[in-house]
UniProtKB/TrEMBL annotation:
It comes from Manihot esculenta. Residues 147-307 form the Peptidase metallopeptidase domain. This is Peptidase metallopeptidase domain-containing protein. Ca(2+) 1 binds at residue 243. One of its GO terms (molecular function) is zinc ion binding. Belongs to the peptidase M10A family. Matrix metalloproteinases (MMPs) subfamily. Residues 1-26 form the signal peptide. A motif (Cysteine switch) lies at residues 114-121. PROSITE patterns: CYSTEINE_SWITCH.
Amino acid sequence: MIPKTFQLFGAILLLFLIQLPNTIQSKPSGNPFGFIQRLEGCHKGESVSGLKDLKRYLEKFGYLNYAKNSGNNHANDDEFDDLLEGAIKDYQHFYHLKATGVLDNSTVSQMMKPRCGVPDVVRNGTNNHYHNPKSIHSVAHFNFFPGPRRWPAERSHLRYRFRSSVQVPGTENFRSICAQAFQRWAQVTHFTFEEVDANSEAEIEIGFHRRFHGDSDPFDGRSGTLAHASAPTHGRCHFDGDEIWSANPGPNEVDLESVAVHEIGHLLGLNHSEDPNAIMYARFSYGITKRDLGTDDIQGIRTLYGLQ
């Protein structure tokens, strides 16, 4: 006969084992940008918990820089100050929203969408709104990195290699998908691209990584930033391994080729476009494909390299 002490211990252990899976499953794993929803309606003069996180968000994507305003001490607090209002207005201008400086519903909704991790605004960069010489009514919305940054004329043949720190399901055809994505840019530029072995010398390196992965821009998990790439001539392109990637995306999956085409645009020197139809638009949605270069993308890359 089992002593009552052991019976009691066994019952407690069984209860613990039953409860444990539920505890693990209840661990939060939401949208990294979800905190913004709680800030809807905030405006200048208020102090609301979470505004310091919004300041970091706007700083990450190029709209806010407290370091250049040494007299301002609100970088790490929850005060809605003048600089934050101005940054929100800049964000609203970029995405063609009503520039109120208030966190209204349309602004919050836009901020919460999955996106590229490259900043929209690069300080001291070039925000170009070119008029098409063939039509006075046609305005381009492409942007360049500071400089602008471009590959030198003698580097028109670019080699790329794959190096990942994690294995990601659904990416078995990633090499052929990237080849297709590079070809889309090759068709409208003077560039040619060649895949080389992982240990070979290359101008471009592509891979999947999670969270902190050796650069200054850690990923944030699913539903936040999808990927990021560097401007010429650094040639780094990283995809977030926490996303659900696919060559034929379902409702909760990200299209590999669509994001690859976008990031290659950064590798060639284009920054984000303000045109929602452009490949270089920063925002993206699950379950869709957006692989074809738009007029703004083509005009931007040809302007950057003096191609007609």
